[in-house]
Amino acid sequence: MPQTITQKILAAHCGKKEVVPGEVIEANIDVLMMHDITSSSAIKLLKTEFKNKIAQSLKVVVVPDHYVPNKDIKSAILYQELFNFAKEHNLKYFYSIEGGNYGVCHVMLPEEGHILPGNVIVGGDSHTCTYGALGAFSTGIGTTEVGNVLATGKLWFRVPKTIKINVSGKMPKNVMAKDIFLKVVGDIGVDGALYQAMEWCGDTIENMSIDERFTLTNMAIEAGAKSGIIAPDKKTLDYISKRNPNAKFNIFKSDKDANYEKIININAGKLVPLVAKPDLPSNVVAAKDLKNIKINQAYIGGCTGGKWNDFVATAQVLKGKKIAPNVRLLIVPSTAKIQRKIVNEGLYNIFMDAGGIMSAPTCGACLGGYMGVLGPKEVAISSTNRNFKGRMGDLTAEVYLASPKTVAASAIKGYIEGSLNVR
Amino acid sequence: MSDKIIQGKVYVVGDDINTDAIIPAKYMNTMNPQFLGKHVFEGLDKNKYLIDFLNKDKTCNYKIIVAGKNFGCGSSREHAPIALHSAGIRAVVAYSFARIYFRNSINGGIILPLETEFDLSGKIQTGEELKILLSEFKIINLTTNETYFIKPFGPVEDIIEAGGLTNYNKKLSLNINKNEI
Ligand code: SF4
Question: Does this complex have an ipTM over 0.85?
Fold first, then answer.
């Protein structure tokens, strides 16, 4: 029977020749990602229920990111628990802030070479689907599951159906991968891909940088999807060989006649900069149709919009410009390596000259944690992935989601702006 | 699970209730159930939901939630079912669930996610009394005398029966050990 890439990866991880959508399987997990705010009970669970023993087959990667450096006493306690857990178990892959090599989990794991094509990866965070951009099956899980995966190295899954999204054509200059995703979620809705895998293909995806591909798979969960995936190609292999030259892995691709629940075709050449209005990522309109939406804050960061490529795009727009008075422009690099590159390659000066500020890597205000929490009735435009009520601060604050280019252009104008004729 | 009955007052919400609405991110710096239970549904749109979920003293009159589609969308935080359970909720009846919320409910084993054939969020009113008969896949509305049906769990029923993934895995390892002896 012809299979999708997702079916093939899952079959290979439960010792079967093939699996069918709807079937419940128990898969061996290659990599488990843990971070600071969803691990506490999992650590306790491992101790009290499973003799504190981690499955030997499992690679555990720990990345404290949501509240680092600690924002208050409670988060400091969560961090201590995670720190002590990593030390107690002698975990090799613990990106603690103490070492200076740290950052947001979904950008750290690929950057450090932990994500390989054909792998099954789970993590205690809904945007764990990000890693699918490198041809892996990857999905977010809850804390009880993290504890159980730690102990058993396995987890049950219902094999998902797949929606294929075929993107073709050359993207206009002011359009980014973020706009492609917003177009899709705007069309299918926040539950449009519920329980399913979103598989991206087409010449636009082939020509796209790996960083941009991550934006597409990162946001799969915003359409309700279980995972996002892109078949590995030469770019994928180059990306991995630079970070993990000795890695061994299997490459899977969908069969030509594989069965898809739905096929969506997108003409990238026709796209315009889009914005998701409050309070759902699917509330999508063209940026140019939003008139006089004044902003207090422009946020470039998070696992969706804080990658190296996102800052290059931001710098293209901001170079030689000043942001509008009364606008806060927050630049939040996703990892320390990206932060260093921003400084070394001159982007830092562009951002500072424009009137922005840059923080250390953190999830920060993406989830209303700290470093840019919105006050009552404030309006933000953000390159992050969620704009639920209260997501970035007060319940009456409003968050508009857009690409880094649109966020930067809006910071210059002081109100939402997608045309980039500010250049 | 076979003969379980859940009876109590219902709180009704609409579509796409996200995890930030159930328990806002600002409380993510702890996993203490008692604390989380006192802040449940703080993120809910006050203009839309005129009856507060929690009483002024942070107690809760409800045992069941009825929702539209995609309940629990958004983050992976298990704080959501933990907070609902701690407030007193024993089952969420929805037209559909977001997948991580659904998994968290099944695997955590503390609160049941029950899917219905039809969207009941427009049919049932907050404050009505429901009786859920799990063995018959049936919900009786004691206030209106209407009956509704829930979908069977399918293969994950074993995990529910065991009381969650931890018990399920422990039982399995017991069986394996027995076989080895
Ligand atoms: S950056 Fe935002 S979306 Fe990404 S992991 Fe952190 S809080 Fe979640």
Answer: yes
